[in-house]
Amino acid sequence: MVLVILGLTVALIVGRGPARSTGFDLRATAQDVAQQLRLARSAAIATDRTTSFSLDPAHRRYVSAGSVGAALPPEVSLALTTATGGKPQPLSAIRFAPDGSSSGGRVVVLAGHSAMQVVVDWLTGRVVVSNGS
To answer: How many CA atoms lie within 13 A of 83 on its CB side?
Structure first.
């Protein structure tokens, strides 16, 4: 009887698949986006050339400074905007100049009812991750 219960328990755990946390995927994606933005800024400064971070919504990927890019987890989505004249505008890329400044913008990482944002300061190119949208 014990073996039957143990077998059913194992079957339920294995059948469910690996445990995934939406909150973990949200935080991990936000941190990875921030890291890719920082790498793009560093590449712009190091190579003395403009580099960019861009979204590819059709393939659910983001790419930075010639990297292969990263795919989004299934339940996570990204929105990239910039403020022009006080109105948020859709943006496909954030560009970094050789002096470290940027076009500025905000990447909102969404998963379920939770959100985190990655903000890029236009003047300094500084990248900050925060909770909320």
So the answer is: 6
- Fill in the DSSP letter of residue 74: T
CA 119 to chain centre: 11
What whole-number distance in Å separates Cα of residue 35 and Cα of residue 4? 48
Q: Residue written as tokens 């050789």?
A: 98
CATH superfamily, domain at 21-131: minor pseudopilin epsh domain (3.55.40.10)
Domains of the chain, by residue range, sit at 21-131
Q: Which residue has the tokens 């936000």?
A: 30
pTM passes above 0.85: no
Mean pLDDT by 10 residues, the chain (133 residues): 81 64 88 92 94 83 79 87 57 87 91 92 93 71
d(CA 126, CA 121): 5
d(CA 42, CA 26): 24
